[in-house]
UniProtKB/TrEMBL annotation:
This is Putative major facilitator, sugar transporter, major facilitator superfamily. It comes from the Eukaryota. It comes from Lupinus albus. The lineage of its organism: Eukaryota, Viridiplantae, Streptophyta, Embryophyta, Tracheophyta. One of its GO terms (molecular function) is carbohydrate transmembrane transporter activity. Its main location: membrane. Residues 30-163 form the Major facilitator superfamily (MFS) profile domain. It is found in: Membrane.
Length: 163
């Protein structure tokens, strides 16, 4: 298997005996990488939830939702009832699911490093597209790219901590 190999039981037991329970720089970095990869979905939930309630954002990308928001009587369901807004929100999560499944194949065939590079590159492209978005299509494509980046990251990062 490229990029790493599975250890046998004897080698695992030998490594376990050598481990003295020290907190090394490597352990700290592995924990930070694992935590960062896992927190990307949670971070997005917080950010997208806040952004979708901002008037400037709604006015630019979802004007019909903005108009309903102004005239709504404190009913969040009716205020944000929009297939386009739902597509914006869910596109990242669906792309993340698909990417997690694809990432396992890529990781098995090419190794963790390539998967991390693919995830990071996808996330970078998605971030740039979302920052530069001028229309809804560009915004959703950016979210899909972000989802692929997060999906690859979540699948690979948990393996990274098992080195």
């Amino acid at each position: 298997m490229a990029g790493g190999s599975f250890t046998t039981g004897a080698v695992s037991n030998e490594r376990a005996k050598e481990y003295k329970g020290r907190v090394t720089a490597y352990v700290i970095v592995a924990c930070i990488v694992a935590a960062t990869g896992g927190s990307l979905f949670g971070y997005d939930v917080g950010i997208s939830g806040g952004v979708t309630s901002m008037d400037d954002f709604l006015l630019k990308f979802f004007p019909s939702v903005y108009i309903r928001k102004i005239h709504a009587h404190e009913n969040n369901y009716c205020k944000f009832d929009s297939q386009r807004l739902a597509t914006f929100t869910s596109s990242l999560y669906i792309a993340g699911l698909v990417a997690s499944l694809l990432a396992s194949i890529v990781t098995g065939k090419y190794g963790r490093r390539i998967s991390i590079i693919i995830g990071g590159t996808s996330f970078l492209i998605g971030s740039a597209l979302n920052a530069a978005a001028v229309n809804l299509g560009m915004l959703i494509i950016g979210r899909v790219m972000l989802g692929f980046g997060i999906g690859f990251g979540n699948q690979v990062v948990s393996l990274f901590s098992n080195l």
